[in-house]
Amino acid sequence: MDTLFPKDVHFELPDAEISYYPNFLNKQKANHYFDSLKTAIPWQQDDIAVFGKTYTQPRLTALFANNTLPYSYSNITMHPQVFSSELLLIKSAIETIEPIVFTTCLANLYRDGKDSNGWHADDEKELGQNPVIASVTLGQERWFHLKHKEDRSLKQKILLGHGSLLLMKGPTQHFWKHQIPKTTRAIGERINLTFRVIK
After folding, report:
1. What mean pLDDT, rounded, does the chain reach?
2. What's the angle, vertex CA 179, arms to CA 86 and CA 90, rounded to 5?
3. N or C: which end of the chain has fewer CB within 10 A?
4. What 8-state DSSP symbol labels residue 21?
5. Is the CB of residue 29 less than 8 Å from the CB of residue 86?
C-alpha cells in the first residue's frame, strides 16, 4: 500500500509498533538542520559485507554518541564522535515524544537516487531485546518499505518527508524488515538521523 499522511499516524500492523510524525520539525528548522549537518558532519563511506561479498556502501555515514561504545553491522564497526549541539537539540525533541534517553545516532547521507539501504532489521545484539529506533528525515523525501519476515502478504510503504520522524519499537525488529530502495528519478540529497540506544 502506498500511503501519504498529513497527520501523525500510529500503524495497526501485526507484530509491530510503528508511528509516523510528518511535521516533527517545521520547514524552517528542517531546512536549517539539513544545511548545517550536511557541512558539519564528517561523512565517510565504508565497505560492507553482504552474503560473503564486499561492496562499497551506497550512502555516506557517521556515528555520534554520548559514550564511546562502538556500533557494528554488516562487518562494519563504527566508533562514535561526540554529539554536536544540534544533534542534541534534535535528540531532546524526540525524547519529548518517546521518553527514553537515546545514546547514539547513526547518520546517513543519501546523495541521489542511486544511494540506498537494502532490506534489513535493526536487530544487532547491542541494541537490546526490543530496540527503539527514531528516524528523522531532512531533505529529499524517500519511500520507506516494510515487509513482514514470515507473512509475505504484509507490506507497508511510507513516504518519509522533510522534517518527519518515524518511530519503530516493541517487537518490530523481530518480525519486520525495512529498506530505502534505489530510484531512477532525478532526486536531491537526504540526511537520515537514526537515534537508538546502545546497551
Report:
1. 94
2. 15
3. N
4. E
5. no
The string of pLDDT tens digits covering residues 91-146 is 999 999 999 999 999 999 999 999 999 999 999 999 999 999 999 999 999 999 99
CA atoms in the 13 A half-sphere facing the CB of 30:
21
Q: What is the pTM of this model?
A: 0.94
Alpha-carbon distance of 97 to 184, in angstroms, equals 35
- What's the pLDDT band for 17 if we cut at 50, 70, 90? very high
Contacts of 195 (CB under 8 A, 6+ apart): 90, 91, 94, 102, 104, 105, 133, 134, 135, 136
Cα dihedral 173, 132, 58, 193, rounded to 10, equals: 160
| Dihedrals phi, psi of 76, to nearest 5 degrees | -105, 135
